[in-house]
Design goal:
The complex is a heterodimer of chains A (about 270) and B (about 375). Chain A is α/β, with parallel strands linked by helices and about 270 residues long. Helices cover about 35% and strands about 25% of the residues of chain A. Chain B is α/β, with parallel strands linked by helices and about 375 residues long. In chain B, helix 2 packs across helix 3 and helix 7 packs across helix 10. The chains are: A alpha/beta (about 270), B alpha/beta (about 375).
């Protein structure tokens, strides 16, 4: 396992891009379903170009926070800024522009089942931009190759793909418009260890080559150690820590200690 | 900061000097500008110049789509035998160009469309085979249904009473209000239309004969069957189809259960019990509509109507109508369930099979009604 720092060379940031800029800023957010508070006064920041791992107990609301940031779940209180813009204060046109700047890989892939893989990747291009069919084909095939899918998968329907291939195809669709920010929800769940490791290095490679910022909800300790720059821990209805994984080992919180020093977590200590 | 602003349109200016040509790229080469970028790239004409310099100094921002177009232009020029050099490449763009080198898509193979006549014949052949297979499948389900009924006679536990009852509840009780309302209105309309013409002959009382025979024999059961085909038939196909999409049907197989026995047989039995009940209620409602309109429109009092009805029709008319219902129910259920079992992995396939289930079921119900009319005419009832 390689530490995040000694990876391959990374793409220089965009002209005028600031490495310290916060791509996501979640401030004082409260989300509740009925009378049940999922989060209370939650804060989180994600910096440009980093891979943030987001962990928490099953059912603690990891996916809910991602869906809140994506405006799929309404929040009761607080502000969320993407690329420095308050998502609630944006007029609809700008909000649509903002949508094109991030890509989402859902847990089950969420490919459109009646379209082929290639058509799935082309949906965002077709809907948002007026491109020639030739260019769309070329770009979609390039993305397909970037996520490591064979050419033969291009004309298959999602029902004909394996779980790992569905995730890769979903990732290719999320990357269709060259987003700056990528949300991935449990990318390695349901993959075999080899496939999971390949997916991890794929995401890391994409960050290095395309300059993505990655928000990764995960349960996979391997992913946390091998690709994440920082790990945010959701516990007690808020983010209790957002630190590089080595610092979390000594963090004083019962759940964090159990998570990283439990039976499974202990195996990684000393290796990384 | 914002990659997509400023939105300068990408452009290329070419200066030619004998054997040399310089193409200066400028603007934002991003996915949002891809159509202009592609137009600019296609418009580049290097003439006879054999040495081309692509000067990328004016490119303000670029993403992988812009880098791809620059790469494509370079590859094209090289393919035409020119020597191409890149100049003033920003580190970021150089990185993207290198990355694209690793992921060059092969061109999609061009598939030749076969001739129209051959396509027509292929379609015809395929459709014929599909219809044949559908028929065999329908027969197979019917066979299992018969088998289960036979085993149920010896061992009633196989009948899955709970499932039958819950399906009966949904297909029958839920449909009562809409079936009765619709039949009431149709009964009303028939009597009014018939009354309008018969009145001119002074034969208004024959409205009772006409609506009595028509409603009891045909309208009651037909309306109920068509509504059930649309309502429960589509529901059966969608339920079984989505179970197939979620691999629930496969799960039944692996648990040693026969999907036809678990999913299809209870639905068929429930429908076979439900449709006669609905047909009866439908006939009653249509008669009520007929009585009401003859009273209001033709002035025939309910008393007189009932008296005339006794002379005009026998209970046999009602029995003839109701006796058709179980057969129609069997056809609706068989078609709906077999279509449901054919659903593939996509939501589109679910929609297609649900549509075809309802269309086939309604069509077959009317065909069966016609066959029964011929049969009853032949035996003289």
């Amino acid at each position: 396992m390689t530490a995040p720092s000694d990876g391959p060379r990374r793409i220089p940031p965009t002209e005028g891009g600031n490495a310290d800029e916060n791509v996501i800023e979640v401030h004082d957010v409260t989300v509740s379903f009925g009378t049940f508070n999922v989060f209370k006064n939650l804060d989180l920041e994600v910096k440009r170009g980093e891979i943030l791992g987001f962990v928490g107990a099953s059912g603690a609301g990891k996916s809910v926070l991602m869906r809140t940031i994506l405006e799929l779940v309404p929040k009761q209180h607080g502000t969320i800024r993407l690329f420095g813009k308050d998502i609630d204060a944006l007029p609809p046109a700008e909000s649509a522009e903002l949508n094109k700047r991030y890509g989402v890989l859902f847990q089950m892939g969420a490919l459109f089942s009646s379209l082929t893989v290639l058509e799935n990747i082309q949906v965002p291009m077709r809907e948002n931009h007026n491109m020639s069919p030739r260019l769309m084909d070329e770009l979609a095939l390039m993305k397909l190759d970037m996520v490591g899918l064979a050419r033969s998968a291009a004309n298959k329907l999602p029902s004909e793909l394996s779980g790992g291939m569905i995730k890769r195809a979903g990732l290719a669709r999320a990357l269709a418009l060259d987003p700056e920010l990528l949300f991935v929800d449990e990318p390695t769940s349901g993959l075999d260890p080899i496939g999971a490791a390949a997916f991890d290095s794929l995401i890391k490679g994409l960050r290095d080559t395309l300059g993505l910022t990655v928000y990764m909800v995960t349960h996979d300790l391997d992913s946390l150690y091998s690709v994440c720059d920082r790990v945010a821990v959701l516990a007690d209805k808020r983010v209790v820590a957002a630190e590089p994984v080595q610092k979390l080992l000594d963090f004083d919180h019962p759940w964090v200690r159990e998570y990283f020093r439990g039976v499974r977590g202990r195996r990684f200590i000393g290796h990384a | 900061m914002d990659v997509r602003s400023p939105p300068e349109q990408p452009s290329i200016t070419v200066t030619r000097d004998g054997d040399m040509a310089t193409a200066v790229f400028s603007g934002a080469w991003t996915v949002g500008n891809a159509q202009y970028a592609e137009a600019a790239v296609t418009a580049v004409d290097c003439g006879k110049a054999m040495r081309v310099t692509l000067d990328l100094s004016g490119v303000t921002t670029a993403d992988s789509s812009g880098a791809w177009l620059i790469h494509r232009e370079r590859a094209n020029a090289e393919f035409e035998g020119r020597r191409v050099e890149l100049a003033n490449v920003s580190p970021r763009l150089q990185f993207l160009l290198d990355e694209i080198e690793n992921h060059i898509p092969e061109p999609l193979p061009h598939e030749r469309r076969p001739y129209a006549a051959i396509r027509f014949l292929t379609n015809l052949g395929e459709t014929t085979v599909t219809i044949g297979k559908d028929l065999v499948e329908l027969l197979a389900i019917l066979g299992v249904f018969g088998l289960r009924l036979a085993t149920a006679a010896t061992n009633p536990r196989h009948l899955r009473l709970t499932s039958i009852l819950s399906n009966f509840d949904r297909t029958c009780r839920g449909a009562v209000p809409i079936v009765m309302l619709m039949s009431f209105l149709v009964g009303l309309i028939i009597a009014q239309q018939a009354g309008f013409y018969l009145q001119t002959f002074g034969a208004a009382l024959y409205v009772v004969d006409l609506s009595g025979v028509l409603i009891l024999r045909e309208i009651g059961v037909l309306l109920a069957a068509i509504l059930v085909a649309g309502r429960s038939g589509s529901a059966f196909t969608a339920e079984i189809g989505s179970m197939r999409m979620q691999e629930e049907v496969d799960a039944l197989h692996t648990l040693g259960l026969d999907p036809v026995e678990v999913l299809v047989v209870p639905r068929l039995i429930a429908l076979i019990i439900a449709l006669p009940v609905l047909a009866f209620l439908s006939a009653i409602a249509a008669m009520c509509g007929s009585i009401l309109i003859t009273w209001l429109y033709l002035g025939i009092t309910p008393d007189l109507y009932m008296q005339r009805l006794h002379e005009a029709v026998t209970p046999l008319e009602l029995y003839v109508g109701i006796s058709k219902a179980p057969f129609m129910a069997l056809i609706i259920g068989l078609v709906a369930c077999s279509e449901g079992l054919k659903v593939g992995g996509s939501s589109e396939s679910l929609g297609r099979h649900t549509t075809s289930a309802v269309v086939k079921a309604i069509f077959l119900v009317i065909v069966v009604d016609g066959l029964f009319a011929m049969f009853f005419a032949a035996v003289g009832i």
